[in-house]
Amino acid sequence: MENQKPAPIAVGAQEGKTISVAGNTYRILVTGKQTGNAFATIDMMVPPGGGPGPHAHPDIQETFYVVDGEVEVKSEAGTYIAKKGSYVIVPKGGIVHAFKNQTDKMAHLLCTVVPSGLEEMFLELGQPVAAGEFLPPPPMDPESFKKLIAILEKYGQKAFPPDYLD
User: Fold this and answer.
1) Spacing of C-alpha 47 from chain mean position
2) Residue 113: beta bridge partners?
3) Mind listing the domains of the chain with CATH numbers?
4) How much is the pTM?
5) Cα–Cα–Cα angle for 111, 86, 109, nearest 5°?
6) What are the pLDDT digits (tens) for 11-36?
7) How far is residue 60 from each of residues 85, 91, 98, 127, 135, measured CA to CA in Å?
């Protein structure tokens, strides 16, 4: 008789796709294709000054565990400094939020999104890199910005001006 139960998913230390997204380096650990679209997990390395600008995703809950370093998390509800060991939940509903590494040291985050989908957006936006490799953020001329907005909207995201949460 065949075992009908799904097997555990194991990802080795060097496995997963590593991509540069807006100057940050993300390693996709688990995709929605592997979890029946239930969730995806992304290992994020965020250099000093790095992090996404203000954005919202009403249909996705996003969580961050700060493995090392710290990031400033801003939302419409306020600002929180998430240090090593902190856990941040951005609930479904579309609150505008952003995070930024305001320090001079690398920040390391473990991000899980429920349901999956953001990892596919990152794969479309990003450029493959080697582990530990960082590319500068791409220039944002009007045509590049228009392309970025189209990709974000394709995945149910909405972007806001950089100073939206100031």
Assistant:
1) 14
2) 40, 62
3) 17-129+136-159 (2.60.120.10)
4) 0.92
5) 30
6) 999 899 999 999 999 999 999 999 99
7) 23, 7, 15, 23, 27
